[in-house]
Amino acid sequence: MNRSESxxxxxxxxxxxxxxxxxxxxxxxxxxxxYLCSLRDPNxxxxxxxxxxxxxxxxxxxxxxxxxxxxxxxxxxxxxLERQRADLGLYLEGLGDNPRTLLDAWIRLTPxxxxxxxxxxxVERKLYLVDLETILELLxxxxxxxCPDPDA
Length: 152
Hints:
Elements: H1 3-8, H2 14-21, H3 29-38, H4 50-55, H5 58-78, H6 81-95, H7 99-109, H8 122-143
Helix pairs in contact: 3-5, 7-8
């Protein structure tokens, strides 16, 4: 089978295109959450991706990105805590910064709170935050990052 024949059998459309060209290149599920959230306008909640919008439409890009964000979030929530920790570690390693500096900033600034999809249920939001903050506390102890609140 030649390359054009094998490509012809691949699913077509915005979701497979997004996966094939972008999401499959991100090694951690947490990294996919960060990426997908970065495509969401914080003022309107609309997801924007120039390439998908050009190939399909603005509305279709928003729909596919929103759905992909929700799927990545659900996938991460289904991981046991140990796997979440490993996945977050993979993401943090990929950033290439000093882990202590990253953890300190994350604990103080809580940027991870913005990664929750708008359509997530309250119980999912709470589970995500409890899991992530538990992992961050473990990593904080592991890396010797000072607690931001001396009374804590």
